[in-house]
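About this split. The held-out portion is used to measure sequence recovery: a designer receives only the structure tokens and must propose an amino acid at every position. Recovery is the fraction of positions where the proposal matches the reference. Here is one held-out target exactly as it appears in the evaluation file.
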């Protein structure tokens, strides 16, 4: 269909855009008007960038939008929704390359808001700049300087422990830049009373480690009193002692509490857990973690779209992807069934599913792949799902891509469909500009794991030949999944010298294994609560876990099962850090309704009250003894180009132009105005319905199981 070529220029007029050169925009409009009809409009103002809302308000069918913006969107509609609307309207969104007029840098601190006394906490100072320069950074904790250096790093990590009460952290950068208000950031940390922890079993070594951090209670009998604890540890207990208590433990966990089960000579496979009622609460089955011939199918889904023609280091992304796939195929067990799919805007079958030992040309066919075309991730995933539909046993997709797609919502629906079919996706992000959020979504939605390109050992442990421990007596530990609260930044230097036999359930997360792939730490949810399975002990076989280099594994695991340590307290006040002139929520748990000269409290739950505060001064503030921070407006935090904004441009078939490219822009618009309007039937409702049916079936199954157990 041929349309009238015209363009609408939208200029982001928010405060952060003062950093960029705008002098040529009027000339660009005049040059474009000589070639095609051109409108210009200013969007967003002041210290809020409602970029998504502004684009949607100006978007019409078959439009050509040209944006002058840094792509940072801090209020209103998500940019993903904008891309979807543009695709549905058959419209393109392009942008102009920004030329910095002034240099600027911002600083921010991320990390724990609540902790317990003496616990080690990890914080990250994040520095954003319009161009990379060295800045002078200082970080103070309660007035004590802990970092004082010149750096050009984007992220600086530090660890800190605290005593009781509220604590104040300040990060400050010194550099001659445009905005000064974003050169200092304030953060508060609240040290809450020690969480109450019940230990069923346990010896002095574990108690010595945990006593400084938690209020420990040795349990001799599991009964209704465990509801007094935010978490419970089951240490090397057999099923005989646990089966009759499963209903009590199940209700306790399902209501939002946590449980850690530690291995040993009386637990898991050595404690008759297999087939027991207690096993139902765990994120693992009691079984040897080996693999049998023919029970595992693996489909490689390889992105060969145009975006993989960009460089990653010294090589093209598509060449890196092919190398990763070929190396992984070499690591697979010959007893696996293997297939391969390549995709751009269509899916191409490279190899139908076949026993790997009988396959001859797969590696050569992958090596011959060429890049080009648009990116529709869902095409590759749906083709792999189709190929796996008649396979038995374990079904898996190894998804290798930079994550950039023109159909993000359709891709997410494809991931959800894979999950309903019992298919796990193991995603590998390739490229400095990988859209990690989507790649991790693929893994998290299906119970898989996200890997960086250099982490191929994880795939080998999953699908390689299962090594027998044989006479092996020393088992180094391997962090299998680095994208979890427990394992984020965790450096283990431990060996174990024995372990219990267990295999992760489909809905669980495998975090730590031995070097030959045996599960050591697996976590999962049960109702509203959390359960962790540590399939070794800390005495005879896993004693290295208690030393200084590795004990963080225990404390992080316990903190994860506990969740919010204040949730069971009789009273508390909770105020998170916020921004000046923005709503800051105040929550107070009390038997009496709180009163204040400044704020009105409304009851929102039993003994729980809420109010909204607004402050106009940057820095630390106090309320009824609580300390909270109010920082500079978020408009000044995201400095420089938003890397994810490029996904919107790619997904709508737009381009990035210079402000002197009037002729190229006009020709591009004329070409796009001749595009075909394609009517595309949406099958998203089928994916949503199938997901809903699985969810409802699971609820019914669990209720029947609980009823049967009662």
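Reference sequence for scoring:
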């Amino acid at each position: 269909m041929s349309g009238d070529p015209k363009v609408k220029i939208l200029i982001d007029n928010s405060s952060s855009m003062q950093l960029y050169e705008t002098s040529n925009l009027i000339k660009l409009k005049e040059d474009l008007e000589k070639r095609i009809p051109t409108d210009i409009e200013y969007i967003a103002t002041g210290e809020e960038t409602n970029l998504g809302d502004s684009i949607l308000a100006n978007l019409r069918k078959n439009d050509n939008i040209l944006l002058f913006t840094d792509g940072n969107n801090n209020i209103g509609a998500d940019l993903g929704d904008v891309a979807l609307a543009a695709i549905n309207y058959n419209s393109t969104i392009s942008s102009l390359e920004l030329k910095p007029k002034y240099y600027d840098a911002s600083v921010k601190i991320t990390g724990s808001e609540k902790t317990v006394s003496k616990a080690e906490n990890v914080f990250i100072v994040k520095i954003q700049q319009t161009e990379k320069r060295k800045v002078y950074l200082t970080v103070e904790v309660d007035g004590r300087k802990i970092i004082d250096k010149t750096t050009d790093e984007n992220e600086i990590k530090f660890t800190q422990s605290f005593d009781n009460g509220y604590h104040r952290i300040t990060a400050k950068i010194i550099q001659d830049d445009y905005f000064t208000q974003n050169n200092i950031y304030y953060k508060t940390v609240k040290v809450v009373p020690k969480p109450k922890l019940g230990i069923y079993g346990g010896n002095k070594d574990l108690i010595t480690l945990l006593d400084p951090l938690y209020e420990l209670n040795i349990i001799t009998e599991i009964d209704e009193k465990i509801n007094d604890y935010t978490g419970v540890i089951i240490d090397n207990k057999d099923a005989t002692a646990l089966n009759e208590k499963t209903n009590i433990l199940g209700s306790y966990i399902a209501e939002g509490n946590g449980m850690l089960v530690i291995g040993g000579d009386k637990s898991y496979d050595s404690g008759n857990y297999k087939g027991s009622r207690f096993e139902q609460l765990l994120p693992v089955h009691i079984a040897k973690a080996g693999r049998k011939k023919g029970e595992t199918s693996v489909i490689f889904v390889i992105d060969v779209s145009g975006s993989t023609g960009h460089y990653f280091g010294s090589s093209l992304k598509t060449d890196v992807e092919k190398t990763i796939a070929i190396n992984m195929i070499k690591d697979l067990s010959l007893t696996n069934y293997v297939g391969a799919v390549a995709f751009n805007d269509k899916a191409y079958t490279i190899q139908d599913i076949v026993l790997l030992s009988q396959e001859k040309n797969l590696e050569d066919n992958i090596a011959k792949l060429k890049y080009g075309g648009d990116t529709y991730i869902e095409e590759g995933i749906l083709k792999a799902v189709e190929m796996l539909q008649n396979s038995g046993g374990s079904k898996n997709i190894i998804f290798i891509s930079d994550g950039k797609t023109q159909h993000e919502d359709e891709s997410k629906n494809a991931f959800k469909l894979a999950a309903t079919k019992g298919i796990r996706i193991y995603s590998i992000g390739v490229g400095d500009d990988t859209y990690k959020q989507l790649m991790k979504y693929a893994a998290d939605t299906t119970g898989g794991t996200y890997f960086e390109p250099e982490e191929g050992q994880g795939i080998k442990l999953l699908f390689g030949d299962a090594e027998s421990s044989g006479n092996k007596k020393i088992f180094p530990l391997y962090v299998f999944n680095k994208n979890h609260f427990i394992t984020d930044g965790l450096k283990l230097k431990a060996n174990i010298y024995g372990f219990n036999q267990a295999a992760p359930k489909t809905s669980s997360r495998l975090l730590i294994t031995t070097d030959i792939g045996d599960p050591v730490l697996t976590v999962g949810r049960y109702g509203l609560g959390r359960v962790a399975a540590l399939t070794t002990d800390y005495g005879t076989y896993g004693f290295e876990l208690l030393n200084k280099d590795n004990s963080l594994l225990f404390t992080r695991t316990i903190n994860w099962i506990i969740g919010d340590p204040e949730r069971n307290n009789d009273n508390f006040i909770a105020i998170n850090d916020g921004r000046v002139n923005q709503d800051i929520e105040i929550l107070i748990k009390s038997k009496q309704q709180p009163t204040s000269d400044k704020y009105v409290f409304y009851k929102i739950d039993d003994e729980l009250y809420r109010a909204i505060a607004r402050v106009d001064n940057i820095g630390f503030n106090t309320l009824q003894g609580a300390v909270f921070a109010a920082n500079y407006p978020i408009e000044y935090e995201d400095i420089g180009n938003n890397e994810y904004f490029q996904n919107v441009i790619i997904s709508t078939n737009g381009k990035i132009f210079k402000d002197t490219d009037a002729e190229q822009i006009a020709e591009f618009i004329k070409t796009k105005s001749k595009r075909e309007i394609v009517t595309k039937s949406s099958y998203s409702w089928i994916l949503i319905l199938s997901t809903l049916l699985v969810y409802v079936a699971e609820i019914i199954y669990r209720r029947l199981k609980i009823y049967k157990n009662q």
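Annotator remark: The radius of gyration is 28 Å.
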